[in-house]
Amino acid sequence: xxxxxxxxxxxxxxxxxxxxxxxxxxxxxxxxxxxxxxxxxxxxxxxxxxxxxxxxxxxxxxxxxxxxxxxxxxxxxxxxxxxxxxxxxxxxxxxxxxxxxxxxxxxxxxxxxxxxxxxxxxxxxxxxxxxxxxxxxxxxxxxxxxxxxxxxxxxxxxxxxxxxxxxxxxxxxxxxxxxxxxxxxxxxxxxxxxxxxxxxxxxxxxxxxxxxxxxxxxxxxxxxxxxxxxxxxxxxxxxxxxxxxxxxxxxxxxxxxxxxxxxxxxxxxxxxxxxxxxxxxxxxxxxxxxxxxxxxxxxxxxxxxxxxxxxxxxxxxxxxxxx
Length: 323
Known about the structure:
Oligomer: single chain
């Protein structure tokens, strides 16, 4: 015998009914509909969202996080998952609860980490806090997950952004102010894989930039120029405390005419006209110049430049040390 069709036996139908009743202001009837929907199918998104909000309203964080995790695992990139995360992020306990889930390897890490257009500064800072807590718990989300958000963090909280990049991206680990000053990692990554805290090849025409072996078996950078003007060939965003620093580097070539073609700048502005590149004072094969970070600057653009000339040069061991 076939039973008559009953919409309330279908979880989605019950949830839609509950949503409609909420819109009409009939909260009691909506609650009954969502209870039916919960019995018929706990995975239904509208149902989970309703009981997630109910749990938050009752300060039942454990239940709220459980429901958030359940729906995020099914639909990690859905807009309502982002909305649920925003609600949890409003409290310290909520941010810690999200971090705990992420640290155990939640499959929604990538969707959660992405910073979408129009996201408020406050929410971006909440996201930084959550990802910092993940790192503090020993969780490593990986370079691919952090690529997009770190580019945003670099503009909002550059120091925190660098720390997150180093904590979650194994190839970026380190403590020096200049990341990979010895050029042991690839500086020729595609634009899709670059972040401001790593070396970025500027891509000016007339410049040829390539890694090369050094005498110790490591790597250095070889650069040649056919341009008629001085051009930057590498750049990196360096967060640092205000104050004076010694910026230094090594040049392999002993010819002073060739080595003097290597210049460096350290500017808070990304505008090349404000960079003011200058050569360093020689001490053996090492060159240095004094630079300063103003009090109103959270991070400066470190750039390496090459003046015109027929021959290439090889540089290595770029450092920035407080004076």
